[in-house]
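Lab meeting, item 3. Inverse folding demo.
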């Protein structure tokens, strides 16, 4: 008995409907990437191991899929190393390549390798799959797409302004109105830690602050104490716990709180420029909100930090995020190349659009017209009509065999075909075709010599 087929855990098959919906999101994003002047690049699905390893921390290294060397991959391993069962030492001997973990490190490698061929500032977008040897669970996969837009080679804050506008344009076009784009700045977080006297506990302070909306002020204070942050420091940070009101009002509070921190004040100034510029330009449908608890990738980002939340009432984690990094390419020897980038969470955006019923109704309409097959002579005339319709850009097909009418109509229904064309003996003699409207009901007869009349009604 044949073994039942399966796919690896953490991977997915996508139905035609799912692919259409994913491509719809991709196409909207690509359109706006190009309108904003971003250029597409692609990098290989696998990189040299040395390119990826050591760039994501110990946890990231553990999640990188390694590719075994071809041929007899154990021939470089001596008996002593093999017997030691040291997986780290052994891996370097039997694997020289690995599947990419994200798009950012390969992008940095690309910029360094092609620095003499590209024009700076370089604006690139990239939509490709990545792989992570993570434990599969709901919403977490081992193979998934990332959708990134980055600018490298400029430290201008106008790039941050533009990326917020890009988020706004894409989500507005997707009809996903009312998303909240949260903003913070790494320098502000560092400044807060400095003025409360806990500079060396920046990470502990920020991790606790990030939980404010989940565990409240008392919970955050308790966690900070457990991490060794003093009561005096917590009291100094108290204004942050109740930070609310307009963005400019919050900036005033932060400016006062951080007046003795050069780095913190610089962060407030950067945030103020972004907020004031965007208020002057206006956004189409997104909300802009300062969130001092936002600290995604704190060790990675050096300036602005972005995160996008779904509209109110939708239970979903972030659907996008990014930030400013001052030395992305430094890991490959090209120093002081500043960059800023954002990503779109494709899978989560898909789920939100599905939940809110925002995909276009016709997105699953893979076929507009189906010609019923009544036999060889009728099929030949139908094929001539099919050719003319296809040249006019109509998605059209002929059922391949003269099966029972009931079977052909069932096929049309299953494919959500809005129009079914009938060419039988009577239509052959009158040089005409009949069109059944599968949505509204009823039918209409058209002359084969006046196809434009049917096209006008499509």
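The presenter then showed the designed sequence:
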């Amino acid at each position: 008995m044949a073994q039942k087929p399966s796919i690896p855990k953490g991977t997915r098959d996508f139905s035609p409907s799912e692919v259409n919906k994913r491509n719809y999101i991709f196409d909207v994003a690509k359109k706006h990437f190009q309108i904003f002047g971003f250029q597409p690049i692609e990098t290989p699905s696998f990189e040299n191991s040395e390119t990826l390893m050591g760039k994501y921390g110990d946890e990231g290294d553990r999640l990188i899929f390694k590719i075994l060397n071809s041929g007899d991959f154990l021939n470089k391993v001596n008996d002593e190393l093999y017997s030691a069962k040291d997986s780290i030492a052994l891996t370097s001997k039997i694997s020289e390549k690995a599947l990419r973990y994200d798009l950012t490190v390969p992008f940095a490698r690309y910029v360094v390798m092609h620095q003499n061929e590209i024009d700076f500032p370089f604006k690139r977008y990239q939509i490709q799959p990545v792989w992570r040897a993570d434990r599969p669970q709901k919403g977490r996969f081992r193979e998934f797409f990332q959708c990134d837009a980055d600018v490298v080679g400029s430290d201008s804050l106008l790039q941050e302004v533009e990326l917020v506008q890009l988020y706004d344009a894409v989500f507005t076009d997707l009809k996903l109105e009312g998303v909240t784009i949260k903003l913070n700045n790494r320098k502000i977080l560092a400044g807060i830690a400095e003025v409360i006297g806990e500079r060396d506990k920046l990470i502990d302070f920020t991790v606790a602050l990030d939980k404010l909306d989940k565990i409240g002020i008392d919970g955050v204070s308790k966690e900070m104490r457990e991490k060794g942050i003093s009561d005096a420091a917590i009291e100094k940070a108290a204004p942050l716990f109740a930070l609310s009101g307009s963005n400019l009002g919050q900036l005033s509070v932060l400016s006062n709180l951080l007046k003795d921190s050069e780095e913190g004040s610089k962060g407030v100034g950067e945030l103020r420029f972004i907020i004031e510029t965007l208020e002057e330009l206006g956004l189409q449908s997104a909300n802009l909100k300062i969130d001092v608890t936002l600290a995604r990738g704190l060790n990675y980002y050096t300036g602005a930090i972005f995160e996008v939340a779904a509209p109110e009432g939708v239970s979903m984690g972030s659907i996008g995020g990014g930030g400013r990094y001052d030395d992305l390419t430094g890991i490959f020897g090209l120093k002081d190349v500043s960059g800023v980038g954002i990503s779109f969470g494709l899978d989560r955006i898909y789920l939100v659009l599905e939940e809110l019923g925002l995909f276009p109704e016709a997105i699953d309409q893979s076929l507009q017209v189906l010609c019923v097959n009544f036999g060889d002579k009728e099929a030949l005339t139908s094929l001539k009509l099919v050719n003319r319709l296809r040249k006019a850009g109509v998605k059209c097909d002929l059922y391949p065999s003269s099966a029972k009418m009931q079977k052909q109509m069932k096929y049309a229904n299953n494919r959500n075909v809005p129009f079914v064309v009938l060419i039988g003996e009577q239509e052959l003699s009158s040089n005409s075709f009949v069109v059944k409207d599968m949505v509204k009901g009823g039918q209409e007869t058209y002359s084969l010599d006046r196809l434009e009349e049917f096209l006008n009604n499509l």
